Amino acid sequence: MSILRDKRKAMGLNQEDFGALFHVDQTTVSKWETGSNMPNLDQALAISAEFEISLDLIYNNPLSFGPLCIPVYSQYFRSGASGSRAEQSRYYDANYREIAYYMQGQDAPSGMLSDEDILSTYLALSVNGTAMEPRFCDGDLVLIRKSREERDGLICAVCIDNDPARLFRIMLHKNGLSLLSLNPTYPPIFIPRSEIDSGRIMIVGQAVGFRGRA
Predict the structure, then answer these.
(1) Which CATH number fits domain 68-211: 1.20.1250.20, 2.10.109.10, 3.40.50.620, 2.40.128.110?
(2) Which of 37, 69, 147, 182 is geometrically suited to a Cys-Cys bond with 91, CB 3.0 to 4.6 A?
């Protein structure tokens, strides 16, 4: 029996009443209790606060809650980690509170959330050059949440042709997209939709975290 079902019954609530507390319907609560679906992080945080249940119990997945050492890449290619250059003995040190913040508003995975899941979803890039100054400087570390989604206005790591990933702000257009540097001395790069569809660029993911160089 799930912890949510236990708590709901202990409080004398049916599934509809329980769902009303968190603005979901009875069917959603039923799926939570059977494990066929999970609350997203915002919902889980509300449940945790209301009923004093820890997130690891809600997700039925006790995590280590130790530090997360996310690999840093000086060069990251479209082939992924196996073909990229990771920096030796250098990591982006994160914790679960930080990762939970970046996950707000997203659906939790239907399976168990684990250290391995998190480390497979995030990577860190070492900034090279001045194209993203003044916000990102040479040697800074940027945490990337992997996603191929094109989203207007976001700063993302992007591979162009066979070059390693670089940071750009994405600007969507009807017939393609522009890759913008934050440093105005660098001209924008326009990629027509036909070249996007042919695979000229690959969006690695969105920049979500930052560590300034020491």
Answers:
(1) 2.10.109.10
(2) 69
- Quick: pLDDT tens for 65-101: 667 889 999 999 999 888 899 988 889 998 877 887 7
Tokens representing 21?
Answer: 């507390």
The DSSP secondary structure of 31-75, one letter per residue, reads HHHHTSS---HHHHHHHHHHHT--HHHHTT-----S-EEEEEEEE
Match domain 3-58 to its CATH number in 1.10.645.10, 3.30.70.3040, 3.40.50.300, 1.10.260.40. Answer: 1.10.260.40
How many whole angstroms separate alpha carbon 155 and alpha carbon 207? 6
- What is the torsional sign of CA 19, 25, 26, 32? negative
- Give dist(CA 13, CA 161) in Å, integer: 57
Distance CA 156, CA 161 (A): 16
